[in-house]
Amino acid sequence: MPRPSQAQQKRRDLLPIIARAFAELGYRRVTTAELAARCDVRENILYRLWPDKKAMFIAAIDYVYELSAATWGRLLAESGSTDGAADRLLDYESHHHGEFGHYRIVFAGLSETDDPDIRKALRHMYGQFHTFVRAQIEGQRRTGKGRRNPDATLAAWAIVGLGTVANIGRELGLLTDRDRKNLMAVVGRLMLKGSMD
């Protein structure tokens, strides 16, 4: 297996810092000078790794999903079983969803959907979240631990939507920590189990 290039490794190393800056300042307010300062590199180094600020922002959008997928992958690998995987993921998210503030990258991106590249990145990110959640729902239901209603595709969108609502509640102070936890755990489980009749 070929080793990643130094540029790929440098991108991987800097991306969490860049994502944090976009989460804190948004797309419009962050400058490449600010990004470079936070990364402790010169701006020209960033431009060797990404063609422009928009490409850095799109990489941060991709990072939102990649970080979640890596976290979920570790969680599932630690359990050693796919039985009840969706329940474990919902339980984890009910305690940790949004704690790093990366949802603010998505919110900033939503205000930029007139840009076709950013719109495409957001569609791809949401599509990945949906595909992953749907697969977990279908896996749970195959084991007989869930009914068939609502349809797994719709249930997955509902769970993705719960995450968005939980983040809005956090950002605007509309939901307490306990309310957000219950939203993900209780309502999410209703969608997962298909308990709606």
Give the strand tally: 0
In round numbers, the mean pLDDT is 90
**Sheet having the most strands:** none
- Report helical residue fraction: over 70%
Overall shape: it is globular
CATH architecture call of one domain: Orthogonal Bundle
Could you write a compact summary of the structure shown?
The chain is mainly α and 197 residues long. It has helices spanning 6-29, 32-39, 43-49, 53-79, 85-96, 103-110, 116-142, 152-172, 177-193. The chain has a domain at 57-193: Tetracycline Repressor, domain 2 (Orthogonal Bundle).
If you had to describe this structure to a student in words, what would you say it looks like?
This protein has 197 residues and is mostly helical. The chain has a domain at 57-193: Orthogonal Bundle (Tetracycline Repressor, domain 2). It is 77% helix and 0% strand. The protein is built from nine helices and no strands. The protein has helices spanning 6-29, 32-39, 43-49, 53-79, 85-96, 103-110, 116-142, 152-172, 177-193. Helix 1 (6-29) packs across helix 6 and helix 7 (116-142) crosses helix 8. It is globular. The mean pLDDT is 90.
